[in-house]
Amino acid sequence: MSNTLLLDVNSLSISFFNKKNETKIIHNISYQLNTNEILGIVGESGSGKSVSSLAILGLLPKNISKITSGTIHFNGQDLSSLSQKEFQHIRGNDIAMIFQEPMSSLNPSMTCGKQVSEILLQHTNLSKAEAKAETLSLFEKVKLPLPDRIYKAYPHEISGGQKQRVMIAMAIACKPKLLIADEPTTALDVTVQKEIIELLKQLQVEEQMSIIFISHDLALVSEIADRILVMYKGAIVEQGNVTDIFHRPQHTYTKALLSSKPSLDVRLKRLPTIKDFMEGNSLTETIDTNQREEAHKILYSKPPLLEVINLEKEYLSKSGWFGKQDSFKAVNQVSFKLYKGETLGLVGESGCGKSTLANAILLLDKATAGHILYNGIDITKLNTSKVRQLRKDIQIIFQDPYASLNPRIPVGKAIMEPMKVHRIGTSDTERKEKVLHLLLKVGLDESYFNRYPHEFSGGQRQRIGIARAIALEPKLIICDESVSALDISVQAQVLNLLNDLKDNFGFTYIFISHDLAVVKYMSDQLLVMNKGKVEEIDDADIIYKHPKNEYTKKLIHAIPKGL
Q1: Residue 212 and which of 10, 123, 443, 541 are 20 to 30 A apart at CA?
Q2: 9-27, pLDDT tens digit by residue?
Q3: Are 106 and 166 in contact, with CB atoms under 8 Å apart?
């Protein structure tokens, strides 16, 4: 590895301000990055990872933020003193960035090929034909299938992993010396995540560029980085090589980040949170295997709460007015039983049929064939008024709590709304009383009742989503990727909360996720889906120890395990 210094951040402080006050967000951070090196920056939301990286690109929000002290030297040039016009020559050419959310970073009204070609036409002297040829070559380099098809496709016509590859192609188009990857795999399947990590490592070697890889997942960062720096509350609390950080962490916060992620080897009663570690209360009690087996014997001796029999969901698509109809089975002959008080984990890659299956159970999308028995009654044959009654019993907690909350309604009213519809409580006063109690139950304050969704963090919004789901006193709750966008520590808090609520209220869960470590921690039984079919179903611990199926082995092998 070359030791030539490429980036030198020295005593950098950044403040955000309004008319009344100024708040220091980044506190005197210093670090260096060499040529041909990968540096991992780890920390939770709000730790300052992204803000400090945006400063390198001169992309701090105008009029509300500024660098208050320190310098950023790139290739010997002081970036903190450059004008926006001077930055335009560096951005894209010498320093490029891959953003966390490709769908909002790509222009929905332009084809993927045009968006990459546009960068080449702006920063190089290539003709249109040469830019197209170079774009197709870049699509091959980032291992996109059928580059010609993706060149003509719009962002909504390709998968999440493919969109991220288009973003990577765009970022490396002008052969930058430094690539900043800001949470580039957060919302992706574990297998796609592994592919993106391997792709970035390969591109780094081929192009001899340096990478800053930002994530909240320490195990993931350890698979790509040479060195790691850990950020907490706007400061660097620890930095060093991957082995030292992983095996000999010095700071309590680093130890907490390593321990908050569910383990694949032991089953803890509660996940330790960052707060537990910082307060010195990180006691980790494990679940006894024999106790778990005894509990399962009792659980499975009763009749099932839900039974899905040979369920199918078929979609028809037609090309053109007189085109032939194609059929696609999103769910194909799926059968399983779910028992009262059980958590069934449902895993598989994007497009495997997990959410389609959940929508069929919720009767949001009518099944094409098969039966769904709830308490012995086939709910696929219910009339509209009976379906309305059933809605109270089966609830869902969505992946994106912000999109599922009305931004114009205070959260207290949003929780009360379904209670009114289903006539829970005799008056608004009684319902409000219940909502205040629920807010406390999910770890929020009563004063939050009159606040709006935008005033909360992601973790708090997810708790509001949970409060709204349990307000109807359901029997079955479907958690659809409900912790995938959360920081590891917030994720630990929400998973502990879901388990506490299960114990207190006797809930039954279908827990859908692409994060296999989380699913194993939560689940009694595990159902693995692939291309609409059930690949295997068994006790979660048995599947992890002895997967029978190649597809399941591939999923387990792709989990970032750290060093």
Answers
A1: 123
A2: 999 999 998 888 888 999 9
A3: yes
The whole-angstrom separation of Cα 260 and Cα 486 is: 12
131 and 119 Cβ atoms separated by less than 8 Å: no
Helices (H), 224-347: 242-247, 252-259, 274-278, 289-299
Instruction: Please give the Cα distance from 431 to 420 (Å, whole number).
Output: 8
CB-facing half-sphere around the CA of 306: CA atoms within 13 A: 28
**Which H/E stretch holds residue 275?**
helix 274-278
Check the CA dihedral 104-106-107-111 and report its sign: negative
Q: What is the DSSP string of 139-189?
A: HHHTT-SSHHHHHH--GGGS-HHHHHHHHHHHHHTT--SEEEEESTTTTS-
Is the distance from CB of 419 to CB of 447 less than 8 angstroms?
no
Q: Which helix (H) or strand (E) holds 265?
A: none
Q: How far apart are the first and last CA of the chain?
A: 21
In the structure encoding, which two tokens stand for residue 74, read together?
């790139």
Q: What pTM does this model have?
A: 0.81
Buried b (16+ CB within 10 A) or exposed e, 454-490: eebeebbbbbbbbbbbbbbebbbbbbbbbbbbbbbbb
| pLDDT given for residue 240 in this prediction | 94
Residues 6+ apart with CB under 8 A from 447: none
CA distance 170 to 177: 14
How many residues are recorded in the chain?
563
Q: What is the pLDDT of residue 1?
A: 46
Say how far apart CA 522 and CA 346 lie, in whole Å. Answer: 11
Question: Rounded to 5 degrees, what are φ and ψ at 510?
Answer: -110, 115
Q: Taking the CB of residue 381, how many other CB atoms lie within 10 A of it?
A: 9
